[in-house]
Amino acid sequence: MNALKVFFTLLLGLLLTAGSASAARLLTPVDPPTEAPAFTLQDTGGNRISLADYRGKVLVVNFWATWCPPCRREMPSLNRAAAWLKKYDVALIAINSGERADKVEKFLQEQPLDFPVLLDPDSTVSTQWKATRLPITYVVDPQGRLVYRALGSREWDAPELLVPIRGLGLPR
Q1: Phi/psi of residue 38, each to 5°?
Q2: What's the rounded Cα separation, in Å, for the pair 11 and 4?
């Protein structure tokens, strides 16, 4: 019986260690943190939104397109993440790269989102942010610096992703 307890204790330790290792791969640190490129874009409602509007807050910026299956697949989890992060004064926005407003609006009718969706029809901002492969997500700290990035889709409501993001806004 003692051997069985030892086995399960070791197994649990291995699982927790593996979980921590995979969590580290979910967000890649930007080292050293660099100034996030400024932008001003229109959202789907015609409002102008800029990076400066989020100064002093943690901001998650997701670049995506409707033609991108992994982008479409991660939108529901981004929506859940946005709701959770909002409780901690962390904002989340999505920037559509290279598409017309009518295509984006059609997608949003099928998949409503509770966070701002900005339009970058000529991909100027996407290029400045080096968002040449989609989806790609950046985390901006309260000082306006890129501190994390995630290339490829994620399950954005996973605690391994949300807790480090939330931690950026905590007093130090």
Answers
A1: -65, 150
A2: 10
Is the pTM for the entire model greater than 0.70? yes
Total residue count of the chain as it appears in this document? 172
Q: Which residue has the tokens 């982008």?
A: 71
Contact call for residues 137 and 150 (beta carbons, < 8 A) = yes
Q: How far apart are CA 140 and CA 137, in angstroms?
A: 10
Among 115, 107, 52, CA closest to 80: 115
Query: Which tens digits make up the pLDDT trace of 142-156?
Result: 999 999 999 999 999
Q: How confident is the model at residue 171 (pLDDT cuts 50, 70, 90)?
A: confident
Sequence-distant (6+) residues with CB within 8 A of 31 are none
Residues 6+ apart with CB under 8 A from 11: none
**Domains observed in the chain:** 28-167 (3.40.30.10)
Q: List, in sequence order, every residue forming a beta bridge with 50; answer none if it has no partner.
A: 40
